[in-house]
Amino acid sequence: MTVQLLSANHAAALAATLAGRANRTGRGFCSGVYPITPSTECAEYLCLQEIEKGRVVRVESEHSAMGVCIGASASGARAFTVTASNGLAYMAENCIVAASLRLPIVLVVANRTIGPPWNLWTDHGDALLLRDAGIIQLFCADNQEVFDSVLAAFRLAEDAAVMMPVMVCMDGFILSHASAPTEIPSQEQVDRFLPPAVVPHRLGQGSHTLGQIEVPHQTEVHRLQHHAAMLGVPERYAAVQEAFAAVFGRRMPDALDTYRTEDADALVVSMGTIGATAERAVDILRARGQRVGAVRVRMFRPLPAEALRRVFAGRWRIAVIDRDVSLGFGGVLWGEVRALADTGAVVQNYLAGLGGGDVRPEHIIGMLDDLLPRREAGVPELVEAG
Amino acid sequence: MHQQSQAGLAETAVLPAGLRFPLEVRVHGRGGQGGVTCAKLIATLYSQMGLSVQTFGDYGSERTGAPVAAYTRVDRTTIANRNKIYHPDHLLVLDDGLLGAQVLSGAGQGALLLLNSRRGMAGFGERFPHCRLGVVDATSIAREHGIGSASLVIVNTTLLGAYVRMLGLPLDVLERAYASLGLEEDFAAARHAFDAVETREVADAEAEAVEAVAPSAPVAPLTGHFADTPPNLLTGAWSTQTPIYRTQAAPCNLACPAGNDVVGFIQALKSGGADAALGILLGTQPLPSVCGRVCPAPCMHACNRKSFDGAVNIRSLERWIADHATLPPERRKAERPRRVAVVGGGPAGLSAAYHLAVRGHEVSLFEAAPALGGVLRNGIPVFRLPRDVLQADIDRILALGVQAHCDGRLGGEEVRRLAETHDAVIVCTGFGGENALAVPGGELAGVEQGLAFLARAARAPETVAGHVLVVGGGNTAIDCARTALRCGAASVKLVYRRAREDMPAIGEEIEEAEAEGLRVLAHRQPVAFTGEGAVAAAVLAEVEAGAPDASGRRRPVVSGRTTTAPCDKVLLALGQRQELDLLPEGWEMRGARAWRDGTALAVWFAGDCATGEGTVAHAIGNGRRAALAALANLSAATAEAEPEPGVPVAPAEIRFSHFDVMPPHRDRQVAPLARRENFAESNQGLGGPEEADRCFSCGHCTLCDTCLFYCPDAVIHRAEGGYRVDEDYCKGCGMCVAECPRNAMEMREKGS
Q1: Which of A175, A180, A358 sits opposite B84 (nearest CB)?
Q2: Which of B207, B28, B212, B213 is nearest to B126 (CA)?
Q3: How much is the average pLDDT of B593-607?
Q4: Given an 8 Å threshold on Cβ–Cβ distance, is A5 in contact with B43?
Q5: pTM for the complete prediction?
Q6: ipTM exceeds 0.95
């Protein structure tokens, strides 16, 4: 175990490299990559690594990058790619193919606003495009979490009861380009955590095709199987957390990460790095004597609904911060979680940090100042963070 | 000033006094200066003290030259928040041109402000009284230590030396940090800045800190938005450097002993055809048909394309130009025509005569042999240099009015008279006698000098029977071998005392000779010839490679191991002596000039008689320089300067990625067995001028538009046969310089 000062882009690439090498006794590793800001450094770093029985294929588009991963995974290799923003939009068709073929591919997304207007900075609109595709989605709040999540994503995706792609999201620039000390385990530890991948339905074992045409009933059953597997993910995630702690000696955050919520009257719910900044806002408000807590939805798909219900129980003021907007509706996260609060609770939506606006503790304090006197929730509020 | 490490911190921890946590550091610079890395280096520094760190850049869509900020947050506990830094405790500014309200915003009472500036502390007067101020000229220091690239100086690692000094930390903290990052090479510059930084404590504790932050620009509705960038944002003001176009010496040009503008004639061939190219060639030398056939082409050994996909076939391009151009040289009018005598009609004499005549002077050329040409006519066989080709080059010189006087060998007395009756005399009589081989049996019939054999073969058909042994490794040796093969030799072996790759002969010539049947015996030397009356065998000793000599080649050491090779003829090609037998009584040669009684005479020496350099190209260059020296001596006002040598463009300075791999066009050769049958020219030269397309044009702009295409701001425009850079909008990113395929641009600091 060493500690390195790494950007999250490099940390993600290093995790993929270690995972790739861990499959040297299995059917190897393959990654199709195509660059797009702010994920490019991850692909670049990966291209520089020597991976035994591994291959990084530089292709001409994101669509093909995922195509390479589909082919590799369908033949039993461990597969990885990285993209962002409109790149993910272009990759989307094949992401859905990968999910529906139940291939355990790990995809890192350096979240970036979808354009136009062209914008380089973070918001979550890109990943949320694929909310319903049958892909597990994890949103990270710091560099170590990105590294850990990529490693864990392989184990989760390749779990026989899960067997589907995992998307690990990191806020563009705020994480992708920020450096922080990151604990890097040894290859031997990673080998123990990630046994050789087994894709039970891989090609090349007798006559067998993937994704052929089906009659309605077959598709109905396959969709329900996928849905059931998705619903079982929180339980499998907990098992991965335990295995992770046993091998690496540190705990990976829960699917729902909570901060000082035990005695809180009001909660602020968010995803990604805003959740980390919210902790600082909670500290400041606690110092003023206000009992507030922070909830970070780390696993967005499948949504840890039960855990959310438990933490929402008895809280009457809940601020939900969305770094996204479902146009004509409001925040996507708010839409998901508002029904999980107690009847009568004020669940107010704040749209903040769109297009990469810098959400600071004072913005979050301002939201709580707005929330606490409310007797009922209003329409989603736009907070300009510039 | 520093306190000892505290419990819980890493063992190396030496925490500076007076730090409050969380500590927030903001770095301002321009894209490309290394601001983001600077913040990361600061994070490394604090991380090594056992503190938690977080560091990130504030990235924009602007590229190099645009203002950028980077941040480092330091704390004793885990850092949660991920927002930017608005109230920095430490503010580092990599470029003082950025100083303004926005950069200074939020820096409160007692903030540390470190500026990279050439202006020194005095240049800031009473400004920033609320800050602890440090000023250092990191740019000059970094440049002195060679940090950065040809297009940009990187100042971050240097500036940190000054930062560490302001923190009151010992320098070894930084040394360790740089060692851990593999930046050992940058440490000397940091030490320099550590010593050089000027500092000032807070001058006025009551002074008001600048707090103003520029308001956000109003956002227009997308559907009603017509204008993009404000038209008056002159981004050129951001830059400290600007690109310039400048010509740099090409290695081929520097390597050419004749002083040819190789890049010039190849590019002229591409753009203006053979006549245009010949015009450039005739500026330096009058024998392009000759050099295009027999030059060992040092230009091709120096060619930067050699390390890419093979040197440009420059020799054959010169031949192609000479064979296809029809342009006669134009005799210029001399302001004051001089009378000059040139003694010797070989390449040096022809060159001197040409350069004098083309400048409008009156030239008498004296040659001992019945026809002009010297070694070109008597030494080089016709299958390498056909006589009509040689004559065409000579006729071009004579057409300028040169008066040739052949078939008369001059002695010292005649030279003295020429000096009295002419404004200047140039003596180019070539080498003296041939080097002999002092071994037993050297006097046997059938052992003779190769040059004598070649001269005989050039005059009349010569028949050779039996086995021939050639001794030597130069072009004369190869010429002897190939001539002997054509004259009917049953076999020809060449004996050379060093390795085959050490042979001075042109590589292609050796290969062609071997294709015709020559066998090269390297590491051999004859130690005796035997035979009854006539030579019948040579005793060849094995030669070992000893210690390197002054030329870098390994000194041959003759061993006692010998073999005997039967032979019927031995041709010696061991080089020639430099000697001058026509110096009049009382004259001496000093440098390349004649002196008498301590006085310099208007008599110059050129070519092998003066230098012994031994190639046609050297003789041509030497003849020209002697002619120009003689003219300059007669009239300083019209003296022509030779181009400055300069530093040649190196292969690493060529952007290979801009060029496609395109192997050289080879000369067309007559099949070896067919060409052995006669004396017709065996090398047919290039099939066309396409080889010119392979020239990188090192250091010489070809108007290829790469700079224009790569400029991210579209500020480079075609203008006046070149380019114009719009400095109002050039951000000085250096991308054009970095992308120039041929190193014909560089970045200059503004105002320098």
Answers
A1: A358
A2: B207
A3: 91
A4: yes
A5: 0.67
A6: no
